[in-house]
Amino acid sequence: MRRVIDVVIGGASLALLAVPFAVIALAIRLDSRGPVFFRQDRAGQHGKTFRIWKFRTMVDGAGKMGLGNTVADGDPRITKVGRILRNLSLDELPQLINVFTGSMSLIGPRPTLPYQIDSYSEYQWQRLLVKPGITSWASVNGRNGLPWVQRIELDVWYVQHRSFWLDLKIVMRTFWVAFVTREGLYGSDGVNDDFGVTQPPSPAVPAERPR
Q1: pLDDT, mean of residues 126-136
Q2: Which residue from 133, 138, 56 is spatially nearest to 102, judged by alpha carbons?
Q3: Would the N or C end of the chain have less CB density within 10 A of its end CB?
């Protein structure tokens, strides 16, 4: 049923957003040099790697400049159009392509970078038991304003309790967070939390990946 909903809503959304996508694409090309879309490898369900789609919001090659994969409020690598897209979370909309093709779902833990899952404990690995989503329980409960450990805790809670009604609640709160409060765009000190090379495992849980 989830897959049917993803295909129907994902496909319909892509059709309805075709013109807005074209306008955004033109704005990106006129604002700065580089591709319209940003493609990057992410860890999906069961740790399988896939390529994510996003509108490019930073200068081309930004990952090799400044803070690297970390982003800060006022980051000079963010373009003028990119700042608008980020503030309204519109840069995430191309992930509807990932939803339609099956590598993502509408609701689920946000897809993370592959290197991060190498230091997951068995408990944290549970966030990879479902497909990653465009929005998540962590996204509507602090987003980037939370440290990674806390975000993963919220993702695991979602995996353990997910239901149609919880997904509906997340969708409704997503619109409020994205377009009204706009909370959690950046870390509490203006800089997104850097994952680092290790993350502490949850208490009383073996720090090893399930087999």
Answers
A1: 96
A2: 133
A3: C
Q: Give bridge partners of residue 39 from the DSSP assignment.
A: 53
In a domain, 104, yes or no: yes
Q: Beta 105-107 vs 49-55: how paired, if at all?
A: unpaired
Range of the domain at 119: 2-181
160 lies in a domain?
yes
- Helix H, strand E, coil C: the string for 40-108 is EEEECHHHCEEEEEEECCECCCHHHCCCCCCCECCCCCECHHHHHHHHCCHHHCCHHHHHHHCCCEEEC
Please report, for residues 166, 183, 201, 207, the alpha-carbon distance to residue 150 in angstroms, rounded to integers and kept in the order given: 19, 16, 11, 17
pLDDT of 201 > 80? The answer is: no
Whether 203 maps to a domain, the answer reads: no
Query: Residue 112 falls within a domain, yes or no?
Result: yes
Nearest CA-CA partner of 199 in 118, 108, 126, 111: 118
What are phi and psi for residue 204, nearest 5 degrees?
Answer: 60, 20
130 contacts 104 by C-beta, under 8 angstroms = no
CB atoms within 10 A of CB 95: 24
